[in-house]
From TrEMBL:
GO molecular function: glutaminase activity
Lineage top rank: taxon: Bacteria
EC number annotated for this UniProt entry: 3.5.1.2
UniProt family annotation: Belongs to the glutaminase family.
Pfam families recorded: Glutaminase
Keywords of the record: Acetylation, Hydrolase
UniProt xrefs under InterPro entries: Beta-lactam/transpept-like (IPR012338), Glutaminase (IPR015868)
Amino acids binding substrate: 64, 114, 158, 165, 189, 240, 258
Official protein name in the record: Glutaminase
Quaternary structure, from the entry: Homotetramer.
Catalytic reaction list: L-glutamine + H2O = L-glutamate + NH4(+)
Gene: glsA
Length: 304
């Protein structure tokens, strides 16, 4: 086995010394103030070891990373019926692009772009008794960590500036692919995006996707077949129009968020999470992508 701590250490040194750290997302005003010098990386291996360096215990806005966790909860609730309302193809466009949704009659390309995640939010609103509380409980169950919370200021900031998400939700509604009121679904969606977690909490939450659907608390949540679907979607759609680049450079299923987080995993082997708030032009963490490319290159551990 490679010496993971030594490898993480060298990745960390490269990251903190990098001259170009990307640009922090400013379209959600509440995220604009985050210092782009933060950098954390955390690895949890399937044989029970955990390694971290830098700001890996500091919480940040998980944003679109929440889409994977919302999808797995929806799978647990309604299974294959999801695919009557959402496709499973990469979009090749930005996460909030609207044109395809209209051309394709209100069927989002996949559950990891905004329109698809809004349909998943609608499914959760329809099927959970107290959607926001129950979703939070799900994350707390996965990790055994009751400190995971929403950031109300971020949720409000998204609500006040989420014009494109309102447009997507209204388009979905016009195509009858939203069962609940637009405001109710978006309130849930903005809250799920506002959830704050650290790299180590994210590695723990995603552990079930590297462990045949069984979470860190040893509870079975989704089947092997469902894990296969989630990981396939992360590989092909987890980085929007940069999914190809991530597969090419990193070679792992993963998911990014505009808060600068990335989680990736190798089934039966490990989950790895990075946080660096500066984004590249495609809206993915610049140094996070580089860090993960270095990790799989140095360790020779990828799905390929
Ligand atoms: N890519 C992202 O992380 C986007 C999530 C963000 N909350 C949005 O809806 O725009």
């Amino acid at each position: 086995m490679p010496d993971f701590q030594v490898i993480l250490e060298s990745i960390y040194q490269d990251a903190i010394n990098a001259s170009d750290k990307g640009i922090v997302a400013s379209y959600i005003p509440e995220l604009e103030h985050i210092d782009k010098n933060n950098f954390g990386i955390h690895l949890r291996t399937s044989d029970g070891k955990s390694y971290g360096i830098g700001d890996y215990k500091k919480r940040f806005s998980i944003q679109s990373i929440s889409k994977v966790l919302a999808l797995s909860k929806a799978m647990e609730l309604i299974g294959e019926a999801i695919w009557e309302r959402i496709d499973v193809e990469p979009s090749g466009h930005k996460f909030n692009q609207l044109a395809l949704l209209e051309i394709e009659n209100g069927i989002p390309r996949n559950p990891l772009i905004n329109s698809g995640a809004i349909v998943i939010a609608d499914i959760l609103v329809s099927n959970l008794k107290n959607p926001k509380e129950d979703f939070l409980s799900y994350l707390r169950d996965l990790t055994g960590d009751n400190t995971i919370c929403f950031n109300k200021d971020v949720a409000l900031s998204e609500k006040l500036t989420g014009f494109k998400n309102y447009a997507a939700a209204n388009l979905l509604k016009s195509f009858k692919n939203l069962q609940n009121p637009v405001d109710e679904v978006l309130d849930f969606y903005f809250h799920q995006c506002s959830i704050e977690m650290s790299c180590s909490q994210l590695s723990n939450a995603f552990y079930l996707f590297a462990n045949n659907g069984r979470c860190l608390q040893d509870k079975l949540h989704i089947t092997d077949g469902q894990v296969k679907r989630v990981n396939a979607l992360m590989l092909t759609c987890g980085f929007y129009d940069e999914a190809g680049e991530f597969a090419f450079e990193v070679g792992l299923p993963g998911k990014s968020g505009v808060g600068g987080g990335i989680v990736a995993l190798l089934p039966d082997k490990f989950v790895i999470s990075t946080w660096s708030p500066g984004l590249n032009k495609k809206g993915n963490s610049k140094l996070g992508m580089l860090a993960l490319a270095k990790f799989t290159t140095k360790t020779k551990l990828s799905i390929f």
